[in-house]
Amino acid sequence: MTVPADDGLLADAIEQLPFILAVCEGPDLLMVSVSGATRAVLDGRDIIGRPVREVLSDLVGQQIPDAYHEVYKTGEPSNGQEWRVHLDAPGGGTIEMWANFTIVPWRNPDGSLRGVIGAGFDVTESVRSRLAAEAEAADLQERYEQTRDVVAALQRELLPAGLPVVPGAQIAASYLPAVADSAAGGDWFDAVTRPDGTVALVVGDVVGHGVTAAGVMGQLRAVLRDRLDTGDHPVDAFAAADRLARRLPAAHATTVCLALLDPADGSLTYCTAGHPPPLIVTAAGESRYLPGTGGTPLGTGALFPVRTATLAEGDVLVLYTDGILERPGRTIPDSTAELAHVAADSAAGRALRAPELSPAERVCSQTVELLVRTTGHSDDITVLAVQRVAPPGPLDLTLPAEPGSLRPSRTAIGEWLTGLGATDHDTFLLQHALGELVANAIEHAFDGVTDPPRAPVVRLHAELDAAGCLEATITDQGRWREPARQSTRGRGLALTSQLVESMRVEPTATGTVATVRHTLTRPALLANASAPLPAVAPADFHLGELNGVEGGVRVQGPIDTTTADRLEQGLLRRSRGGTLPLTVDLTLVTHLASAGVSALHRVAERHGRQGGKLTLVAAPDSPARHVLALVAIPDVSIGSP
């Protein structure tokens, strides 16, 4: 027996539901009914009769409204577990919360689509409790495994200890390992300041994981860094790394992207050695990929052409490894477009709220988090970003030689350092060091009598050079007295010398000049996925006959470190060691990792020596075709099936 629904009772029941509920109708997804819990979360907003994109306008860059529209578009439900979102608070500020949700189609009795219904639970407290417990457990685990975790320690030592803070460029990086309990892999990044004021930015990817890959990565990074540090042209630096790769089998087919930026005028020279091309996010919030240069991976062809571009002030240049593109369940074209979109949202502050971070830092941290949380990841992910900004001016202070000058001088120093992008640690060190020198000058440089009579002052000048080294001078007009003559003197100088890299004090005929030098750096982020990642079912690898083609082979499934050897052996067996012509169709390859590229290079080299023609074919939109367009395998025909 069906009892007619009472609209008033139904509305009252929905109002009392203890979870978030939103009923949206029509193609614009107008919100027609919500629960009381929803009203509490969206306190102060005009909800009923308005499109979901307007009601949740502050979540547009966080994929929530997009999920509603995707369900309406496809008719398929969508689920999310522990998604982190930032909501605008009614009185200003930001509310951070985590939610589990399900969005399902809302259908008419005849089955036609009427709208969508979203239901969710606020799990903020449980997530925070779990994160706190995980942090405590991680701390205990780290202490317990310090002597055993050799691989992770090796990775930390081989990657840069910090990124330079330089005039006109703000640099950031993040690294997310493929396996949560192992930080060792073949990805690396680097940022090298050069004698001419340019900055070399490098992202590379060695085949495989573990100690071997990490060791090879360290050697290649050292060679490139040494060449770039001494001012070599990128082509010469690549040539040196290529020579090393030819001597180290494990370095074969390493891919690298190198970009040389002049922060002064924005000129950019770059090379993609088998690597995905750089991405530019403009100051206006648009994004575009630079053309690839057609270079070959290290150890495979020694072809390293360069291209040029210009980075305007406010633009962000993004270098990355292919782990962020080759995510489970995504095609390369879809991942490429998604990366450009999410990076633009992150840089512009349209994603997660983090005004304390620079656009480059938001790109490195938020882009990885937002992309990985929906798909998981099966490979290391490295992102290196730089934003070109207006170079900072020097700091010039003229202070009365009296104790009342100390506090405002420390404030001015701190504000100037923050504007440079200095870390809290470096700001603390320099505020203390320079404060000690100013105090020393005020206390000891003057006897209270000057000749000729004048109001004594202390001058502080500080500036950041192109290499990221801050030099500050404190000058007074008093008379130098040797600290050793009084047991109570010299402590400020001793403290200063321990806080900074170098300090020099020089008495002159007109006063004393104290000079401090200290290099500024910022740490890179060792990222972690913030939510449980979906399990990825491995696809089957298979070699079969290519119908209608004599000597043809069809490859299916992933080609990675676990299947690359089988691919190489199978292809060489069918071509009798490279003596017979061979056509290989890679259209059904779901993942072509660097290990697979290395195997194809070895097969191509064998065919070149033995005289057999090798032809690789792949559909235009396939993952393999995308990778083949980057790696430039010499003497191999590449086409469509």
What is the fold's blueprint, element by element?
Elements: H1 7-15, E1 20-25, E2 30-34, H2 36-41, H3 52-55, H4 64-74, E3 78-88, E4 94-107, E5 113-122, H5 124-145, H6 150-158, E6 163-164, E7 169-176, E8 185-193, E9 199-209, H7 210-229, H8 234-247, E10 255-261, E11 267-273, E12 279-281, E13 287-289, E14 307-310, E15 316-320, H9 332-347, H10 359-375, E16 381-388, E17 395-400, H11 406-420, H12 424-444, E18 457-464, E19 469-476, H13 491-499, E20 502-508, E21 511-519, E22 521-522, E23 525-526, E24 542-545, E25 552-559, H14 564-574, E26 582-592, H15 594-610, E27 614-617, H16 623-631, E28 637-639
Parallel strand pairs: 7-23, 25-26, 26-27, 27-28
Antiparallel strand pairs: 1-2, 1-5, 3-4, 4-5, 6-22, 7-16, 8-9, 9-10, 10-11, 11-14, 12-13, 12-15, 15-16, 17-18, 18-19, 19-21, 20-21, 24-25
Helix pairs in contact: 6-7, 7-8, 9-10, 11-12, 12-13, 14-15
